[in-house]
Amino acid sequence: MSRAASRSTSRTGAGRPRILVSRAELITSERWEDYGDRVAEAGGDPQPIDFGEWEPGQPFPDHDGLMLTAGFDIDPARYGEARSDRVTEVDPGRDDFETALIVAAQAVGRPLLAICRGHQLFNVVHGGSLLQHLEEREPHRARRGADGETIDSGWHDVAVAADTVLASALGLANGGLLRANSRHHQAVTLDRVAPGLVVAATTADGVVEALVDRSQPWALSVQWHPEMAEAAAPSAGVWPAFVAACSTHAERTSGARS
Fold it and tell me: Catalytic site residue 53?
């Protein structure tokens, strides 16, 4: 049995909702701990789930919510396209792993928050596709910092649509603008959105920055990086909203655990 499957399934953290946070390859200037810290600060109990620990067919640890993190590109084969020469780092095994996580979570209505790569995979799993490469660096793609080693984000405005879980979380019930950080070269565009998903935020150049699945109690994907300290203030509402949804799920299913 995989290590992930053999972890204790008891609730921890004094009743905090247990939230699985995917963890895989290391990305320069990005830290898994940032995701975990934001979850913990909002009252959740973040639990890493590693691609390297998972085996197809094994059950996932008991959890109340799921977060998918950033990382390598999605393999275009997943949406029926040949790989562009601008797509150089893919991991089909991780794609399989996180696809299984999404399917398992949504089969029982667990809250889901998917970030960056997770946003793109969320769209692909539901039948959408991706623009494989944004030719213009500005404003979405990352760039080298002044020291030549660190990676800096691109910054741009995001137009948040009214009447979604994202708008509610951000206190923008009627819609509005959000300043967001970006570090991606693949993108969900308006013509590539999966059937059944709702566009919750866009940029002026047509990149889809957030998606929601209204068939689920709480399912949101965002292209930017709300876990990073640099984006903490404008995106702060995402975390308590997500953790509260996970707590609601935990309360609703507590009878089945006992």
Answer: no
- Dist. CA 133–CA 122, nearest whole Å: 18
Q: Which amino acid is at 102?
A: I
Q: Which two tokens stand for residue 158?
A: 């995001």
What average pLDDT does the chain have? 84
d(CA 83, CA 49): 28
| CATH number, domain containing residue 52 | 3.40.50.880
User: Residue 55 sits in which domain range?
Assistant: 3-133+185-257
19: β partners: 46, 65
Q: For residue 14, is pLDDT > 60?
A: no
The residue from 30, 98, 209, 227 that is catalytic is 227
Which is the catalytic residue, given 30, 63, 98, 116? Answer: 116
Q: What span, in angstroms and rounded, lies between the C-alpha atoms of 200 and 215?
A: 14
Active site residue 135: no
Q: Which of 98, 225, 246, 249 is catalytic?
A: 225
227 found inside a domain: yes
pLDDT value at residue 199:
98
Residue 195 lies in a domain: yes
pLDDT of residue 58: 82
Question: Residue 145 domain-assigned?
Answer: no
Summarize pLDDT for 165-174 with one digit per residue, the tens: 999 999 999 9
Number of compact structural domains in the chain: 1
Evaluate whether residue 58 is within a structural domain. Answer: yes
Which of 29-33, 91-95, 237-241 holds the top average pLDDT?
237-241
